[in-house]
Design a protein that fits this description.
The complex is a heterodimer of chains A (345) and B (521). Chain A contains 14 helices and 2 strands. Chain A is mainly alpha-helical. Chain A has a two-stranded antiparallel ribbon. In chain A, helix 3 packs antiparallel against helix 13. The two termini of chain B are 27 Å apart. Chain B folds into 2 domains: 238 residues, 3-Layer(aba) Sandwich (Rossmann fold); 179 residues, Rossmann fold. Chain B has 21 helices and 20 strands. In chain B, the strands form 4 sheets. Chain B has a 6-stranded mixed β-sheet with strand order 6-7-8-3-9-10, sandwiched between helices. In chain B, helix 17 crosses helix 18. The chains are: A mainly alpha (345), B alpha/beta (521).
C-alpha cells in the first residue's frame, strides 16, 4: 500500500505545484501519518516494530476491520448497518451453543454462524426494501433483537464446558481443536489465521467493489437510487445483497471471536459496532476518496490498532482509548468533508 | 380598466447573466383589478421578471414603482412587506404537511417576529377561518394538511400570500398541478381579488387559463417586450410572437390518423394554426404501422380517458402541454415503471408489456428522465461518475457478462459518443459534475445512443440547456431518428415544434389536437 504513496508524492515534487502537492497529500495523508506514527513508536519503544507485535496489532484489529468492511458495503449502497456488532456477538454464541450444548463439529458450528449472519442480513434487507423502514432504524432494531436473542438460550450466562443451562442440565461439549485453530493458529507460524481471513475478505471486497459491474451497481444505488433503477439496475436486490454480505462477514468475525476466546462470551462484541463504524468512516479519508471504500476501512481499523498499541506501550492509561478513537474519528471526518468541499469541484 | 390606478410600473428593466441578456429594457404596467398575463418561451425572461418583482433578484438598471412610490425590494421578505405577494409553482416548499390546515394558514403570523406568543386554539381557529374565507377555502381547518388535495394546498398558499393584503400578486404557473375543476376554484378566488382591486401578474403556459383570466397579455421574447394583446386574447397571434414565426404545426395524431413519416413532406406540412383543416386532410389515414409504437385505449389511471395514438419508426412525435398534465406519467408508463390501468400497447407488431425498466432496456426501449440529476446522473461521490462510467452504466450486464469491467471498452464507447454528440470536455474520464449544463444533458442523452434504440422516450430533454446546445441536441435526435420511434415529452411548445415531426397536445391525461387546444374549443 505504501508503494503507491511514493510515486504520487514524487510526481508532485518536480512541478512544485501547490495544488498537486495538496492533492497528493490528500490521497496519502493518513497513510503517511500511519507511517510516521509507526516510526515514532519504534523510536520511543524499539519493541514496537517487531514481527510479533505488528501481527498482534493486526490480529487485534482484524475483527473490527472485518466488520468495517461489511459496514462499508452497506454504506456503499447508501445504507448503514448498525447490527454488525450484534450479529458478530450472536454468531459467536451460536457457534458455542452448537459446540458445547449440541456437541456439533467445528464445521457445523461454522455453518451455524454463517447461517445466522446471512439470516440477519436478509432480515435487515427485507425490513428496509419491503417494509421501507429507514436503514439506520431497521438495523438498530436488529441490533437490539440480536443482542437480546443471544442471551436467551444460555439464560444470560457465558457458554463453556460445564455451564449450567437454564433447564438445570450441564453443558458437556467442548471446543474442538479444529475450531480453536481458526482463531489461534498461525500460518507458517507467523501470520495469524484471523489476519489471513481478513486479507482474503478485503481482497475480495476490493475486487468486487472497484472492478466489477456489481460494485458499480452498489455505488450507483448509494449515489442515486432512482437513476440506477431507471437505468435498469435491480437496486432493491442489491441493497438486500449488501446487507446479506455485511451480515455474513460479521458472522465470520463472530466465529473468529469464539475460536480465539474458546467460549461463548456474553460480553463479547460490546464495543465492536462503534469501532467498526469509526473504522469505516475513517476509511472515507484514507485514500482521499471521500466515499466508503473497503481498503480504507481496513486501513482505518489498523490505524486505530497501531495508535492504541503504541500508546499502551508508552504506558498511556487504558481509559484514554475511547477518547483517542473519538479524536481520530472527528479529525478524519473533518478532513474528508472540509477538504472535499473546498477541493472537490 | 385603463382608468384604474396603476399598481405597478416597471420601466426599462434590464438584467444580465454573464454574456446573456435575460431582460432588455422591459416595460410593464399592471393596474388595480387587472390580470396581466406574462407569456414567453423558456428563457425568454419570464422568470427573471417574476424574480425581480418578488425581490429574489435585483435589476441591473431600470426603475420600479409600486403604487406611485419607488419599489426596490431587497429580499423576498421585504417585497412582501412592501405589498407584493408571490405564489410559486413549487408549493411543496411553502407548506408544512404535518401541521393542520389552520396552522399552515397562520404560519406567517406565528413566525413573524413580535407576533403574539400565545393564542388559544379557539382564537387561532377563528383567525384561520377568517383567512380561509377570503379565498373560499372550504375544508375542515383542523385536519392535517397532508391529506388534502393539491388544490387545497394551493389555496392555502394563496390565502397566506393574501394575508399581508398585497397590492400586487405574482402567480407563477398556479394551475400546473390542478385539474380543470380545481383550477376553477382558484380562478373564482382570483376573480374575487380582482374585484377588490388587487393587481395580478399571471405566468402560465395553459392557453385556457390565460383566456379565462387575462385582461391583457404581455409577450416576452429574448428579454424584450415583443407585443401586448388585449382581451379577448388572440392566442395564435400571441404564440406566433412568442416563438417568432407562424406556428409550424404538422398533422394531429388522432386515433386512426397515423401518419406515414415522409421527410419531404416536412416542409409542406408546416402550416399556420388556421391552416389546420388543410393539413389534416393531407395526413393519410393508414393501417397501424407494422414497425412502430401504437397505443389503443391506454389508460394511465383507472378513471382516466383511454389514449389512442401511434408513432411510426423513423418518426419523432412530441407530446406538449402544461407541467403537471401527465406527460411524465405517460412516459413512465410506456417505459414500464408504471402499470397502465387498461388498454394495450404494441411495439413493432408485438404486444408491449414491459415489467420494469430493466425489461424495457433489455428490449432496447430507453427513457431519458426529466431533471437529469434526479433521474440520470450520479453524484460525484460515486466512483464512476465520469463520462464513460455514466454512459456504460445501463449496459454493464450486457457488455461485461463475466462481471469484470473493462475500462478500454467503455472508454472507446465514450469517445465515440463524445464525438457524436459534440460534448465539450477533455476526455472520457472527465467528471460529469465539472461539465456545463448543456454538456451534462448531452452525456445523459448520449447514454441512450450507445446502443441502438427501438424506441426512445425523452422527458423534458431540453431542461436547463441553452439555445445553442438545444439546437445541437435536436440535430442529434434527427440524425438518429430513422431506426427508432422517438417520443418527446416537453412542456414548451417551441421546443416541441423544433424537434418533432408531429406534435400532440397532452393535458389532464388526455390527448387533444394541438390547434383545438390552443384555440380553446
Amino acid at each position: 500500500m505504501k508503494i503507491t504513496v511514493g510515486p504520487n508524492a514524487q510526481a508532485a515534487l518536480p512541478r512544485l505545484s501547490l495544488a498537486r502537492l495538496r492533492g497528493a497529500l490528500e490521497r496519502s495523508g493518513i497513510v503517511l501519518l500511519l507511517v510516521a506514527l509507526c516510526a515514532l513508536f519504534t523510536w520511543c519503544e524499539p519493541a514496537f516494530f517487531s514481527v510479533d507485535n505488528l501481527f498482534s496489532i493486526l490480529q487485534a484489529a482484524s475483527i473490527v476491520a472485518l466488520l468495517a468492511v461489511g459496514v462499508t458495503i452497506t454504506l456503499a449502497v447508501g445504507g448503514f448497518d448498525l447490527s454488525v456488532g450484534s450479529i458478530a456477538a450472536t454468531a459467536q454464541m451460536a457457534a458455542s451453543y452448537v459446540l458445547v450444548v449440541w456437541h456439533g463439529s467445528a464445521l457445523a458450528a461454522f455453518a451455524a454462524c454463517l447461517a445466522l449472519g446471512v439470516g440477519a442480513g436478509l432480515f435487515n434487507g427485507l425490513l428496509i426494501t419491503r417494509l421501507r423502514v429507514p436503514d439506520q432504524l431497521a438495523t438498530l432494531g436488529t441490533l437490539f433483537l440480536l443482542a437480546g436473542l443471544q442471551l436467551i438460550p444460555s439464560g444470560g450466562r457465558s457458554l463453556a464446558t460445564g455451564t449450567i443451562m437454564p433447564d438445570g442440565s450441564e453443558a458437556t461439549g467442548a471446543f474442538p481443536a479444529a475450531f480453536l485453530a481458526f482463531g489461534r493458529a498461525r500460518w507458517l507460524d507467523v501470520v495469524p489465521v484471523p489476519v489471513l481471513v481478513l486479507a482474503l475478505i478485503t481482497v475480495a471486497a476490493v475486487l468486487v467493489l472497484e472492478f466489477t459491474r456489481w460494485g458499480r451497481v452498489l455505488y450507483a444505488t448509494g449515489g442515486n437510487e432512482t437513476a440506477a433503477r431507471l437505468a435498469g439496475a435491480p437496486t432493491a436486490r442489491y441493497r438486500v445483497g449488501a446487507y446479506v454480505a455485511s451480515g455474513a462477514i460479521a458472522s465470520l468475525g463472530g466465529a473468529l471471536i469464539a475460536a480465539r476466546v474458546g467460549r461463548g462470551d456474553v460480553g463479547a462484541g460490546h464495543s465492536l459496532l462503534l469501532d467498526a463504524v469509526a473504522a469505516a468512516l475513517i476509511g472515507y479519508a484514507v485514500w482521499g476518496l471521500k466515499r466508503p471504500n473497503a481498503l480504507g476501512a481496513v486501513t482505518g481499523a489498523v490505524f486505530v490498532g497501531v495508535l492504541l498499541n503504541g500508546l499502551t506501550m508508552l504506558n498511556a492509561p487504558y481509559y484514554m482509548q475511547d477518547f483517542i478513537k473519538g479524536g481520530l474519528l472527528v479529525a478524519a471526518l473533518a478532513f474528508t468533508f472540509s477538504i472535499g468541499q473546498r477541493h472537490g469541484r | 380598466m385603463s382608468t384604474a390606478p396603476v399598481v405597478l410600473e416597471a420601466r426599462a428593466l434590464s438584467k444580465r447573466f454573464g454574456p446573456t441578456r435575460a431582460l432588455d429594457h422591459f416595460d410593464l404596467i399592471v393596474r388595480a383589478g387587472e390580470v396581466v398575463a406574462l407569456m414567453g418561451a423558456n428563457g425568454a425572461g419570464k422568470s427573471t421578471v417574476v424574480k425581480i418583482l418578488s425581490g429574489v433578484l435585483r435589476a441591473d438598471s431600470g426603475t420600479l414603482e409600486l403604487g406611485g412610490r419607488a419599489y426596490e425590494p431587497a429580499s423576498t421578505q421585504h417585497a412582501k412587506a412592501l405589498g407584493v405577494a408571490t405564489m410559486h409553482q413549487a408549493i411543496a416548499d411553502a407548506v408544512v404537511p404535518t401541521l393542520s390546515v389552520a396552522e399552515n394558514l397562520l404560519l406567517e403570523r406565528t413566525s413573524r417576529a413580535g407576533g403574539r406568543w400565545f393564542a388559544s386554539p379557539a382564537a387561532r381557529l377563528r383567525d384561520a377561518r377568517e383567512i380561509a374565507a377570503r379565498v373560499g377555502l372550504a375544508c375542515d381547518l383542523r385536519a392535517p394538511l397532508a391529506g388534502q388535495s393539491v388544490a387545497t394546498r394551493q389555496l392555502v398558499t394563496l390565502a397566506r400570500a393574501l394575508d399581508a393584503k398585497p397590492a400586487l400578486l405574482l402567480l407563477d404557473e398556479p394551475t400546473a398541478c390542478l385539474s380543470a375543476a380545481e383550477a376553477d376554484v382558484l380562478f373564482a378566488a382570483l376573480d374575487a381579488l380582482r374585484s377588490q382591486g388587487v393587481g395580478i401578474l399571471l405566468v402560465s403556459h395553459r392557453p385556457a387559463d390565460l383566456r379565462r383570466m387575462a385582461d391583457r397579455a404581455v409577450v416576452l421574447r429574448d428579454g424584450r417586450g415583443a407585443a401586448v394583446f388585449d382581451a379577448p386574447l388572440d392566442c395564435d397571434a400571441a404564440l406566433a410572437v412568442m416563438i417568432g414565426r407562424a406556428l409550424p404545426v404538422r398533422t394531429s395524431g388522432h386515433p386512426g390518423h397515423a401518419v406515414q413519416p415522409d421527410p419531404s413532406a416536412r416542409a409542406v406540412q408546416r402550416a399556420s394554426v388556421s391552416g389546420l383543416a388543410h393539413t389534416r386532410a393531407i395526413g393519410r389515414v393508414n393501417a397501424p404501422p407494422a414497425t412502430g409504437f401504437r397505443a389503443d385505449g391506454l389508460k394511465l389511471f383507472a378513471d382516466a380517458p383511454g389514449l389512442d395514438f401511434s408513432a411510426a419508426r423513423g418518426e419523432i412525435v412530441a407530446f406538449t402541454g402544461p407541467l403537471g398534465g401527465g406527460k411524465s406519467r405517460l412516459a413512465r408508463t410506456l417505459f414500464g415503471i408504471e402499470r397502465p390501468a387498461g388498454g394495450t400497447m404494441t411495439l413493432d407488431g408485438t404486444p408491449w408489456r414491459p415489467a420494469s425498466a430493466a425489461a424495457a432496456i433489455a428490449a432496447n426501449v430507453f427513457m431519458l428522465g426529466e431533471d437529469r440529476w434526479a433521474t440520470s446522473l450520479f453524484p460525484d461521490s460515486v466512483p464512476f461518475a465520469s463520462i464513460d462510467g455514466t454512459l456504460s452504466f445501463p449496459f454493464l450486464a450486457r457488455w461485461f457478462r463475466s462481471g469484470r469491467v473493462l475500462r478500454e471498452r467503455e472508454q472507446a464507447a465514450a469517445r465515440d459518443a463524445i464525438h457524436d454528440m459534440t460534448v465539450r470536455c477533455r476526455g472520457p474520464a472527465d467528471r460529469v459534475v465539472n461539465l456545463s449544463g448543456g454538456n451534462q444533458q448531452k452525456v445523459a442523452l448520449a447514454r441512450w445512443h450507445v446502443e441502438p434504440a427501438r424506441m426512445l422516450l425523452l422527458d423534458e430533454p431540453f431542461q436547463g440547456v441553452d439555445v445553442g446546445a438545444r439546437a445541437e441536441i435536436v440535430e442529434v435526435l434527427r440524425t438518429h431518428a430513422a431506426q427508432r420511434v422517438t417520443l418527446v415529452f416537453v412542456s414548451d411548445l417551441e421546443e416541441a415544434l423544433e424537434v418533432a415531426d408531429r406534435v400532440l397536445y397532452f393535458d389532464r391525461l388526455r390527448i387533444d389536437n394541438l390547434n383545438d387546444a390552443l384555440a380553446g374549443t
